[in-house]
């Protein structure tokens, strides 16, 4: 005898294929569980990243020196610190030097990294593994340790660089002091930063090269394409977003570079290697002008944010224009 449809018990709600949801079990805590797991990391990141930024922004609008650091009660002065910075010629000299520093380093980093990545793609298995290991070791070397090694390499009397150049016939480098000449010190820092930056960019670009189908290269060679044409018409268009992303990261890293410059030269000689981060630290440390140093730091953040946002917008437009 069949049971009427009106008297049949309603079927329990199902979750997934053939699995009923147990009656009375709350579903909201299960949805919140992933957010609860990442909450400590998010809270820690907000505290460690946003609070110092907020504090520096606050100090930049105050009269904050040694007295205020000890007894508190800093007075708001509005935009006076920024007016003092923008009205001084030294600040604009440092800004220009920072842009030159960033441009030279980023161009060398991206050019050498692209060459190394293309070479990795053409090497045999053993040589590729050896070169990748060497790049990884260079990348893993601590910044201060690598900077100290470069300090030894370029010593005037016992440095290997002067000894090698003298052996090659350049007698003028006998006892040459790299750290006493502004342009020479600038060049040493460029070599150091490029050496530290190339491994990351080269390995990342090589990882991108491995994702390009080999059939595209074979078709380009069959059509008579040269190595340069294959790179400009096949490799680079496919990896353009990766190139843009790595360039943005390198711009940020080089622009805010501080420990290498401070350990080797402390911004000298005669301010020849003083960039915006070093300038902010010197003002705050030597003059105890924490308000002015914070203003320099905030202007640095603004410049980087504008550069990064414009680059990201260009990347998004290019991706949107692609079919």
TrEMBL record:
Keyword Acetylation: no
Source species of the chain: Planobispora siamensis
A Pfam short name: BPD_transp_1
Name listed for the protein in its UniProt record: Sugar ABC transporter permease
Cell compartments where the protein resides: Cell membrane
Bilayer-spanning residue ranges: 32-54, 99-121, 133-154, 184-209, 230-255, 292-309
Region of interest called Disordered, as start-end residue ranges on this chain: 1-26
Gene Ontology CC annotations of this record: plasma membrane
